[in-house]
Give the backbone structure.
Amino acid sequence: SDHNLVYPASAAEMDWPALYPDFLGEGQVAEGKTKPRVEVADIGCGFGGLLVGLGPAMPESLILGLEIRDHVTEFVQNRIHALRAQNRVQPPTGNEAATASDAGATTTTTSHTPYTNIACIRANTMKFLPNFFEKGQLKKIFLCFPDPHFKARKHKARIVSPTLNAEYAYALAPGEGRVYTITDVEDLHRWMAGHFAAHPLFERVSEEEESVPDDETQGDPCVRIMSTATEEGKKVTRNGGKKFIAVFRRIADPPWP
Ligand code: SAM
């Protein structure tokens, strides 16, 4: 149940530095620079395969997985901590630092440790999504292999609906944000694509942009990663199943009448 779910009253109240200490911790944001915010959300992230795939591919973007099951959330958090620890480069010893500065070496901005830009929190995104994100904050939302809820009377539990799509539109950057969907259930694919197509603030991208070309340098890398990196996606590949993809752009806000 949601009784023991902790969620902030607004995005401003979230302890983001605790999730991304290398980006937002004490002394990490230079004076006068804007604090980076989460730009990518993986809704119902499961065991975190997409986060782990996207993290190194978008090293300067903060990426957040949201998952309702507490033991799954904990698993993903442990997975991320282990990956960060494995990848952390040992800081230079005092001597090396002294030699470098003695030699007049200029400090270059080192890139962040891999996986310090991904994090996972427990949340029921059907109820509390606007508590985590400000208007227009997100560049990308991923809905990967959501629970299909096959029976008609269960359709209201699907994570795509007119109401939820309005929340996704609110959180996505106008004219720029994208929502990525993938499923092996054709009926759910039609449901998701149909609901986004019917929403006035979304338009579907071209077939080309949704495809995964053989040439790995072509196409949208996010579509490629989404097709291969998630645990559900891997299961579908093993079973020889088909994957249905739809990507929608959040259009610019129409002018007030
Ligand atoms: N996206 C992952 C993947 O592709 O491997 C997991 C897919 S799994 C079929 C669906 C996930 O969504 C489950 O881990 C489930 O716990 C989570 N989920 C379902 N409803 C949710 C909600 N309201 N808020 C957050 N997560 C939810």
